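Exercise 3.2. Students should predict the tertiary structure of the chain below and write it as structure tokens, then compare their answer with the key that follows.

Predict this chain's 3D structure.
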Amino acid sequence: MEMAVQDENEKFTKEHIDTISSQFFGRFFGKPVKKSVFPVANDCHDMFRSLFIWALLTERWKLAKVFWAYGPEPLAAALSAGVLFKAMADRLAGDAFREGKRKTLEDQQMNWNRRACKLLQECYQTNRAATEMLLKCTSEKWGDQNSISLANANRNKEFTGDIAVQRVLSKAWMGSLISRTPSIKIFLSAIFPFLIALFIKVEAQTDFTCTPAKSKTEVDNRETAARRSLSRNVSQTNFMSGTAPPKSQSVAKKFQKLREKLSVFYTSPVSKYCLSLASYLVFLCIFCFNLLVRWDSMSPTALEILTAVWVMSLVAEDLFQIHGTIGLTWYDKLCLWLSDILSKLKVVALLLYLAAVALRYSPHDGDKFYPNTIRWARILFSIDICFFFMRVLEFFYVNEELGPKLYMIYRMIRDVIVFITILLVWIVSYGVAIQALIFPFQDASWDLLYNVFYIPFWQIHGQFYFDHMNGESVENCGSIDHVNETTTGDYTMCPQKEWVASILLAVYVTVTVIILLNLLIAIFNDTYRSIQKEARLLWKFERYKAVVSYINKSSVPHPLVWLAFVYHMLRGDGPRMRESDICIPRDKLSFSDVDSMISLEAKCLEKVLKFHTETED
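Answer key:
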């Protein structure tokens, strides 16, 4: 965000604040900031919002807290302040001359994150139902985003890890299904639809209200009494009239309920997840079968064509996901999508697949293969299948046990990269020395570079090559005199015995195996302990992206997902998030619900300001 220094005679008006906030949140969230349509969001509240942003930009921290206390939507305002400070701090990253300024902005970001977390906890303790609605309700004054998406943009892990946010995400993940439904039943029902009537139960659809919930026992008793009363009334009416409901109507009602149950089941994110997992496992089985069998002809088989269509459907789904990503340009969307390591693996897998297909069906002589071409095609397919198997890790993100383990693995991979950098120094130095001592007088070739790394690498793993170190003859080799006298023939130099090489091997094994490898184990232990709690918090933070992605995901599995893509392209839009899942526009709520949320925020904010002493300023 560009900030211009105003002249002393130039006034800093409300229009300047509105322009800055509109440009910032519009650029960040990909949509302009709208004005509220509710009577409560009057000009006075707009003034406090503008003054709040002005105080943040001019570093008047205490004054900003005053305007925050009197302004509208304090929860969204605190999270937006964190987003603002994070964006400004990111722009100063790498600038050594403004390191102090960046540290100040990061401290302010943490302060506003803590205020938002404290306010959320107070609201949740006061009224859980209203707090859940408050989290899902969008704020038109702050980029038309809800509180969870603002916390995600701010990378506020403590906020998204709060129990209130996780309850909202859990309900959105299950959709209208009973939350206690076992995962195995959902998975089997997604594959075999006839099991839905046996395994799946759907929650009753009720209007969302901000009224505090009664006790579970009281609610169950009232529902049971209402059902008994209704059943009694229906039975008495049928008995007095001497009539029974027509059989055709009961069959039609059962069919209608079954159709609604199927629709609810296959539109829930957890069902989409199970269906996507099952279809991807089928794709991997087909891909593996194509790779393992012999290629007898240049013309593609039916399974190879199906594999190609499946791969293109996966690519189309990724493009559809990029198109729906927040951003102003395709370049911004692509950069945001590529920020995930699994997205980079997807790109590598696609490029390898296209290169392998090009070699597989390259020009040929009749029905004969070019040996080198088909060999390299199989090599690329063999490497590519590994990358496609890596995509299975994407399904582990939503699992409460496997998800945190993935973040631990990623952190350990970073430690391994640092370790390999140190290890390469010893490998190269020892490899060059041992190659010069054991195999002297070799001609220049690329095999020299290969041998420098080959023997030292496997010696770390216990393959010491004592026959080479002791100068024992290998197949088709010659002595120094024989090689010097002979100018023809396919000869390699026999290994020469050198006592210095044995000493170098002892030092190399001591340093690499005893010192460096044990150092790596110690680093892994320290990493595991340090991120054990952080990994679960990070999983809760990333869970929001997974839930939203499956909410927007098509219910049609691969490779038939092309049908859904064509349908949305003909309509000129993409999949839309259902309002009841995780995002509720404020103008869809009743005035009583809006007043309940406003009063809840005001009362809890008063408690936070009164009882929570903040010492960071």
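Discussion points: The radius of gyration is 33 Å. The chain has three domains: 14-175+584-611, 269-396, 405-551.
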